[in-house]
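Q: What structure does this chain adopt?
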Amino acid sequence: MSINIHKSHLFGIEDSDVSVSEAANRIGCSVMKAPLWYFGIMVGGNMSLVKEWDESIAKLKKKLSKWKLKTLSVGGRLTLLKAVLGSIPIYNMSLFKVPKQVLNSMERMRMNFFNGVQEGERKIAWVKWSKVLASKKFGGLGVSSFFALNKVLTLLKSDGFFHLLFFNLEYYN
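A:
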């Protein structure tokens, strides 16, 4: 088994373009430029820009387009909403703070899906979206909000989070 150099690419992280080009020429492969998608994550892009999240929004839309909305019951839509639509952007959300406009867009798509609204269609929502997002303890349906989820996932990345968590568990319980 051998490596096909013509299909290989070299990508430099925190290296000058010149040094990456020289190394690629020595090896005989091409240079890969940023931004690029690597295992579903944007590398080298500015994730605080709305346009960088187009791929994540497209994934949600693609998943929604495969389901026949009219044939699903409310319970079926709720199950898909929790299990699938809630989990698609989680990995990206755990790495980057998502712009509010993107969160609004993704939340609107989930809300329309739950209410049985197809693109370009208007329909009465029989259940208030805040009630859907509310915890089951408070009479809601227990769907997690993307806004709250993004806040928690970015908090988990912060430096003092685990120290603070340990301190609270140790001294306040």
